[in-house]
From TrEMBL:
Bilayer-spanning residue ranges: none
UniProt-recorded name of the protein: Thioesterase
Keyword Hydrolase: yes
Family to which the UniProt record says this protein belongs: Belongs to the thioesterase family.
Native source species: Streptomyces montanus
Keywords per UniProt: Hydrolase
InterPro entries: AB_hydrolase_fold (IPR029058), TEII (IPR012223), TesA-like (IPR020802), Thioesterase (IPR001031)
Domain Thioesterase TesA-like: 34-259
GO biological process, alphabetically ordered: lipid biosynthetic process
Classification via SUPFAM superfamilies: alpha/beta-Hydrolases (SSF53474)
Length: 266
């Protein structure tokens, strides 16, 4: 769902437009966290997290076409196309420690990236983090609204009902017309995703659910534990579908705790 935040810096000279570096100083031993945003959003939603997680975690922001610096490009419409496009850009950056995090639509993309990275390239992440995203094999997925099939007005109102569209954006007709094609294509990515059983991941999985999220409750997310043969945690936090953006500092601390656990006080 579209929830604008300050945009991330666009690609610098020589930087791949598909994978952005937020240009925040980190340590040489930092864990790389690959971030896949939710429907309609761009890499800018992670700016606050990049600052908070430094210096022990370095973010790499997946920048899909159709948003922010790539607003003029047509958005992709299904998970396989997104994975196929992102994968070759991502692999060269994963020679050290890494993890993946996806929210809502981004959860399915991050999950499929993690699967392919391990199965095809032998790249074992330190963790997969999913938030606001039902388990892929959950039968409740079919009960979710099929927003890609809605009229423009219905789609916009449905996204707004999740607190996904700020009021100032909702009132701007020109901005709405600019964003709707990407929002619809992103919902198609989420809604047409076909889960296929395969080898389970060999690294930990951490799931986060909003207590008032109508799209992905803790019950809906419990079956994520079936996708790893390592440890799996499920944490319920206050808030709705965008609980991680309502309190980015608090959620960043949660991420740091599971990705870079410490025994000494922060």
């Amino acid at each position: 769902m579209y929830r604008p935040r300050p945009t991330a810096p666009g690609p610098t000279g020589g930087e791949d437009p598909w994978l952005l570096d937020p240009q925040v100083p980190v340590s040489r031993q930092a864990l790389t966290l690959v971030c896949v945003p939710h429907a309609g959003a761009g890499p800018g939603v992670y700016r606050a997290f990049a600052q908070r997680l430094a210096p022990q975690i370095a973010l790499r922001l997946v920048n899909l076409p159709g948003r922010e610096s790539r607003i003029g490009e047509p958005a992709l419409g299904d998970v396989p196309r997104v994975v196929q496009a992102v994968l070759p850009r991502l692999v060269p950056h994963l020679r050290g420690r890494f993890a993946l995090w996806g929210h809502s639509m981004g959860g399915f993309v991050a999950f499929e990236l993690a699967r392919v990275l391990e199965a095809r390239f032998g790249l074992r992440g330190e963790a997969l983090v999913v938030s606001g995203c039902q388990a892929p094999q959950s039968p409740e997925r079919t009960a979710l609204p099929q927003r890609r099939l809605m009229t423009d007005d219905e789609l916009w109102q449905s996204a707004a009902a999740l607190n996904g569209i700020p009021e100032e954006v909702s009132r701007n007709r020109d901005l709405r017309e600019l964003l709707l094609p990407t929002l619809r294509a992103d919902f198609a990515v989420f809604e047409t995703y076909e889960y296929r059983a395969g080898p389970t991941l060999s690294f930990p999985l951490h799931a986060f659910a909003g207590q008032e999220d109508p799209e992905a409750s803790a019950t809906d997310m419990k079956a994520w534990e079936q996708e790893t043969r390592a440890a799996c945690t499920l944490t319920e936090l206050p808030g709705g579908h965008f609980f991680h953006l309502d309190d980015p500092g608090g959620f960043a601390d949660r991420l740091a705790a599971v990705l870079c656990p410490r025994t000494d006080p922060r």
